Amino acid sequence: MSTFYITTPIYYTNAEPHAGHAYTTIAADVLARYHRLKGDDVFFLTGVDEHGENIQKIADQKNISPQAYCDQIASTFTTLWERLNVSYDIFLRTTSELHKSGVRKLLNTLYKTGDIYKGKYEGYYCRPCERFFTEKEQGTNRICPIHNLPLEWVEEDNYFFALSKYQDPLIKHIHENPEFIQPESRRNEMLNVLESGLEDVSISRSSVSWGIPLPFDTEHISYVWIEALSNYVTALDYAQDGEKFRKFWPADVHLMAKDIARFHALIWPAMLMAVKLPVPKKVVAHGFLTKDGEALSKTLGIFIDMDTDIGTYGLDAFRYYLLREFSFGNDGDYRPSRLDARYNADLANDLGNLLNRTLGLVSKNFGGIPEPTTAGEFDAEIQQMAREMVEKVDALMDQLVFDMALETIWEFVRRINRYIQQTQVWALAKSEETKGRMGTILYNSMEALRVVAVLISPFMPNTANRIRQQLGLDESFNDQGLDTVAEWGGLPSGLVLGKPEPIFPRKDTKKSKRTSKGRPAQAEQPADDNLISFDQFQELDLRVAEVIAAEKVPNADRLLKLQVDLGSEKRQVVAGIAAHYAPEDLIGKQIILVANLQPAKIRGIESQGMLLAAEGGKELAVATFERRMPSGAQVR
Ligand code: MSP
């Protein structure tokens, strides 16, 4: 059995968790659940990073011990993870003995290698970041780019780790293992940092007391980052060379956002190389969730109101939205209006309706699941599509391309809806002759739903369960592994269906408008008929799309038929630009696509979106970008 060890960062206990933490943790949960489905032996770590000057300061202000303060915050994390259905195997706290003993062992081992030396640190320091800035990072004005605060000059006796020694081994490792740092943009960023030279890093503080003393000089406290990174092995009982450590190290995936990629992709692997331990297989740094394009900030009141959205749409829809809407490596702007749109289109309409319709027709015309007696048109195609879907989803999940994995599943869902339409299954009840075919089509639709339920279970565990129950399947079907899921005929005929209930009842949320910052609207501004509100603008889903094919539409002078790549899917768009562009001039161009426009038929050709262009006098120009952007990135 393969093992799979996945980690989130251990989050600071300086404040309660927010949607940014939830994003990483839900993504890790999806991967953990997916690998359990594959039959892997999974270990999923999350936890909290409790030491350091910041935490001590907050506890002092609150007049409680740092430990008591951390206990309070740690429990807000575990409560949230429970609410979000996060299936972690360990919640690591850095104040635990398991961690502290592991840190002591790792630091002692590091000390013995000779890669640690004592020196004086003088430099510019950001207290909230708890780190020194190298000369290159300081810029001319010496302001921390993250906290917007002036850097402080600090002098200390510190121990150092000879990071610079690992510059070449790291470069070599990154070149030899193209998958080590993902996505590609982050890999290049790390290579740039390496090319411009690594400086040694300090690993201790003498002015801080809330932390783990260095085992070889207890006057000094371990620098919080060095201690925190160690959690990935201490949690496996590295201290005792425990069974988990031997089984799960090296980690398969360290997941985080781009803010802390350097620590994970450079410092941590160098520490491991120094103590001769294998480095993690993949370091994956995703983009940031923003609100109205701005970084989440408690002090500025920029936050994502998870409570309201989960209350309105349900947890599974929230999880679905986070992983379907954003391409994982890019920043993504969270918009309740888009969650609403995805809920109604993908969940209520595509999936919910398919289940409803199928179960309704089965209950009305058959006692239980009908026998598939009469094969016919499209059946083989659908079975083949199911097999291909499982393979494709597997490859995409391996690359952590969640949005495309979900889109692949939804292509199948939409295909089955079309199958029902094409075969006009409801009309087959009229005669006994056609009833056999009707039963077969419904059987196939239910089979498709069974396969879909299994594939979506890592993303939407509750929904998968509800589909299973409504199909009348018992819990043993939850253990259906991925290797056999697409084997057609898994559903036992004759089974009595469970109680049908809409899994995603339609919402009319348009009336309960909120302000864009997620707060309830205060006094409404008087409406001006000529203006649209920001929320109305936000309803537009504008995306970067690359033109991959273009041709003239026969007998239509103005029209071009384009195929565009949206990252997670391809679309066909008909545009009235033929008088201004030759088809070949458009190939490779990145355009702005209105991606949530209702599809329309133009001269009998389906157009799934609209591109933006400016028209002035006789001129027309398609809107493009002044530099290349990832396909599918949001435009706002
Ligand atoms: N304690 C360190 C990590 C040590 S790991 C050895 C730390 N903690 S943190 O609380 O600041 O968490 C940072 C991480 O939280 C990010 O890397 C990311 O995983 C998650 N996110 C925080 N804000 C986020 C967004 N706005 N968007 C997406 N992820 C975000 O750094």
Blueprint of the fold:
Blueprint: E1 3-12, H1 19-37, E2 41-49, H2 53-62, H3 66-83, E3 90-93, H4 97-113, E4 116-126, E5 131-133, H5 135-138, E6 152-161, H6 167-176, E7 181-182, H7 184-195, E8 201-202, E9 204-205, E10 213-214, E11 217-222, H8 224-229, H9 231-234, H10 243-248, E12 253-257, H11 261-274, E13 282-286, E14 289-291, E15 294-295, H12 306-313, H13 315-325, E16 332-333, H14 336-365, H15 379-398, H16 402-423, H17 432-456, H18 461-470, H19 534-538, E17 542-552, E18 560-565, E19 570-575, H20 583-586, E20 590-594, E21 600-602, E22 605-607, E23 610-611, E24 613-616, E25 619-622
Parallel strand pairs: 1-2, 1-12, 2-3, 7-13, 12-13, 14-16
Antiparallel strand pairs: 4-5, 4-6, 6-8, 9-11, 10-11, 14-15, 17-18, 17-20, 18-19, 20-23, 21-22, 24-25
Helix pairs in contact: 2-3, 6-7, 12-13, 13-14, 13-16, 14-16, 14-17, 15-16, 15-17, 16-17, 17-18
Bound molecules: 5'-O-[(L-methionyl)-sulphamoyl]adenosine.
5'-O-[(L-methionyl)-sulphamoyl]adenosine binds next to strand 1, helix 1, helix 8 and strand 12.
